[in-house]
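[Meeting: bench + compute handoff]

Bench side (C.D.) handed over the final construct sequence. Compute side (W.E.) agreed to return the predicted structure before the next meeting so the bench team could plan truncations. Sequence as handed over:
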Amino acid sequence: MNSATTVSDAASIPARPPRLLGLYLLLIIMAAIEAFEGLSHAPMLFGDMSEIPGPGLGGAIIKACIASHPVLALAALAFATVGRLRYAIMALGALVLMNWLNEMPSVVRHGLEFRGVSAFETPVRIIAFPLMAACAIALAARGQRLGFATMLVSVPTLYGVFAVIAFGIGVILYGF
């Protein structure tokens, strides 16, 4: 009798709190988008290495970022799928930091660009996104404010998606 009560009580407890289900879904979508992007760039590593710009340390950083992007994205996807919210946030945060690191050789070589669209995009990509990722990683590591941490790591991916959509709309309206 005691075991029957325990089984029925365990069956009535949801595996995940319903409030967190939306966070899991958002992380799965963001990780899937990043995995698609990372896997689409991965063949560059197996082709002609002269296609990857930058000799020396800058080129090595770019190659490491291209190689790690699908790994981190697929790890985030796997963590979110199995219910490890904190680890999924940390993996996406690491992905954002690797994307920032990927841009550093260009910044060192050419400096910061503040003309035209770059006046908005440069501070966002070089300053805001890495800070958001670091904050999200810290929050996830402490297990605090996971909803806010999820939003922080989702913003860079959403920014990229909206940039592609805006570019597509511009091409449709004005042509190349």
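W.E. noted at the follow-up: The two ends are 74 Å apart (CA to CA). C.D. will use this when planning the next construct.
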